[in-house]
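Narrative progress, year one. The postdoctoral researcher (J.K.) led the effort to move from monomer predictions toward full complexes, under supervision of the PI. The following entry was the first complex the group processed end to end, covering 280 residues in total.
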Amino acid sequence: MIERLGAGDEHAFRQLVEQHWRGLCHVAMTIVRDVATAEEVVQETWMAVIAGLSRFEQRSSLKTWIYRILINQARKRAKRDARVSVWSEISERPIDDEVSPLNGRFDHKGHWSAPPPDWGIDPEEAAIQRAMVRLIGDALETLPQSQACVVRLRDVEGFSSGEVCELLEISAGNQRVLLHRGRTAIRAYVERHIEETRS
Amino acid sequence: MMSCEQFTRELSDYLDGQVELPQRARMWLHAAVCSHCRRYTKQMRLVVRTAHELRTPNEGPDAEQMASLLQAFANPQQHEG
């Protein structure tokens, strides 16, 4: 791919853009939280990719390099737009003060007092799978930015924990906590939805 | 014996293969006797697995955006800096 891009292969470039466009938009959205701005950031990212292609040293994968540019662009943009919460500050803030979605579910010994209910679904069923995908997409929208970003990169885009730490410039411990929080909150969201639909 | 609360706190790391022995063994032992935590694990696995399905199909930008990118790609020297 790199060779073809370097040789100015337009078809290869178009393919690369199509492959990553939506994923980049979704991740940008977790930093700027507005579709139009996210698309602008992605457009700027591709311009920066074109400008930097000849200097790309293949120390990381092409995908990681593109996401790295995206995250820099998105953070710059968020800062410029003077949003209240700039991600880089959130990500290194102590996060122990946050209330867990599992609060109140355990007794004083740490055993379940309100155990997880049976969801009563067959996850192999196609309609259930589609509904679950939608539900998890909705749940992601409700997460704090930093958690949504980590879950998107790890579980949706499939980056490794090391890559995500590098991309977001956060510690391994922080990455793990954000991922744990995000996944726990998504499961809780699904559970709430299932309980509501039943009652 | 590990508590359920501890188990749920370690689970995300466990699913990532980030929990080392002997802690991993403690989690196996706990899950062997705790049906609630087994169910919780199943649900978490489903969430993580399904999240990957959110990967969007290949879909580029609109025609106008693509055209301007292709133009920039054809003339990279104008955009360097």
